[in-house]
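so i finally got all the pieces together for this one. its two components total, 267 residues if u count the protein bits. some of the lines might not be protein, just check the labels. i wanna see the whole assembly predicted at once instead of chain by chain like last time, that was a mess tbh
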Amino acid sequence: MQHRYRNNLGLWGWLGGGRYGFDRYAYALHRLTGLGILAYFLMHIFVTGTRLNGPEAWESAMNFFDNPLFRVGEFLVYLAFLYHAVNGIRLVLVELGLLVGKPGLPSYPYSNSVIRHRPVLVGAMVITAVLVLFAGADFFFLTK
Amino acid sequence: MRESRLWFWHILSAVAILFLLGLHMGIMHMGTVLEALGLGSTHPTATAEVFARSQHLFFMITYIALLGTALFHGLYGFRSILCELSLSQSLQKAIGRLCTVAGFALFLYGTYVAVRVFQMKGV
């Protein structure tokens, strides 16, 4: 088991995070969307399992979910997927040491990898927003 | 070392999911856009289309691959979040084992469904 530092703040340790900035909230949202997608995915495994009982069972399951409440819920899952995917690509790039700049001497004006990486985070959020608009149009206006 | 290896697989599974779930989400939710490009339809959850896809070898294989990678990625992420709450070592081990057992059970169930529906010819 790997060594972990004690998290005295509990849930607030990753939800709030004190004086951290934008990046900290992106991190918390990544986890929340991940948990939401996981919850949906576990339910999805059993819903798609109704295919085992034939087309009638599948149609019955689809009729049950065919209402505005589930439509909005489905859209929220889609938003969570878009955010988690785009932010996840950014995190993989950071994990590989890409787009965080090169280390240098601490000379004024001070900079660090988080500040150098900030435009990438903003760019990822812009891409997510464009995809959300695209998906929203498809979900609520284009698909009959 | 074990955690580093699991973390590596967590990232690798994320890349695989990006392609597999991107394909799945595109087909299921971007019907209008795909139809305009001649690549899909606007009724992906219609019974006939669902069973036609399920009985296609390519889709059966991608469903099982997506099931496995998504279960590993999701449950490992879930375990990591819980373990960061400074739980006792024994509780962390118990959560790890529970996630492993649940992951294997769900993978077996999902694979069974995918294979059985694939074999339902003429439905």
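Chain A touches chain B at residues 1-2, 4, 6-8, 10-11, 13-14, 31, 34-35, 37-38, 41-42, 45, 48-49, 51-52, 54-55, 58-59, 62, 78, 81, 85, 88-89, 92, 95, 134-135, 138-139, 142-144 (CB under 8 Å).
Chain A has one domain: 11-142.
anyway lmk what u think
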